[in-house]
Amino acid sequence: MENRITQLFNIEYPIIQAGMIWNSGWRLASAVANAGGLGILGAGSMYPDILREHIVKCKKATDKPFGVNVPMLYPNLEEIIKIIIEEDVKIVFTSAGNPKTYTQHLKNHGITVVHVVSSVKFALKAQEAGVDAVVAEGFEAGGHNGREETTTFTLIPMVKEQIKVPLIAAGGIASGRGMLAAMVLGADGVQVGSRFVASEESSAHQAFKKMVVDAKEGDTLLTLKELAPVRMLKNKFFSEVMELYTKNPTKEELIELLGRARAKRGMFEGDLEDGELEIGQIAGLIHDIKPAAQIVAEMVSEFEAAKKSLSEL
Hints:
Elements: H1 4-9, E1 15-17, H2 26-34, E2 39-42, H3 48-61, E3 66-71, H4 77-86, E4 91-95, H5 103-108, E5 112-117, H6 120-129, E6 133-137, E7 143-144, H7 152-162, E8 167-170, H8 176-184, E9 189-192, H9 194-197, H10 206-214, E10 220-223, E11 230-233, H11 236-245, H12 251-258, H13 262-268, H14 292-311
Parallel strand pairs: 1-9, 2-3, 3-4, 4-5, 5-6, 6-8, 8-9
Antiparallel strand pairs: 7-11, 10-11
Helix pairs in contact: 2-3, 3-4, 8-14
């Protein structure tokens, strides 16, 4: 399945596992890499020394390419970048910030750089910054999201029309059929998050994985736009957020309610009541927890079957 994305990353399939906080440790990244996709470590939930440990373990678990996702809002950003360079990581996905900050610095060290965006405007800024590819993430995606509420089905062709670098689609993709749809719309590959949360190798708490599997249509919602828009499962904490909104809260009041380590409490520690449970709308189509390699294999098989079926129309 060779194309611009498989060539760029030297992988077998144009399937990228999203670098999700509290879900994307070395076990998941190496499993996806060994299955022919691109595994990504989620640095956003790792202290610098923990990230180094995960990079070292990932290298021991796979001889295939893998990368690190770096949110640009990370407080230890300079140290994280230094570790990535020292450990000779070859691929970095940046997000939640200005791609100009470190793109050229990383490329000067021979690193392939990809930036995650939620709009045409920021896709163009990323291309201008010199990135090697862009991830365009639609409104359906879990976790932190764009304020524009542009869906993947709309966003991908609009971004494709404007940029020349390879395009990776994200948001609402968890199957081979979704992968084919994204590529028909102009994507060169797909980034998959929620489906890999419900994998055996995901570092998410088992209780959170089960809640993802049990989720139905309408069980997630995007909220907290005043801080950083985030899509999460509805639970007690979510209800408290909605109740606070009825009182026209200030930004400070929202920050106070959110507190610290809310996402860790929910996704990593399994507090399903008071934790922040970030997941995409596609959770309604995820019905089981299985090995990451099986997820990749099934996506590829379904993609090929759907492509064949489409050609027969």
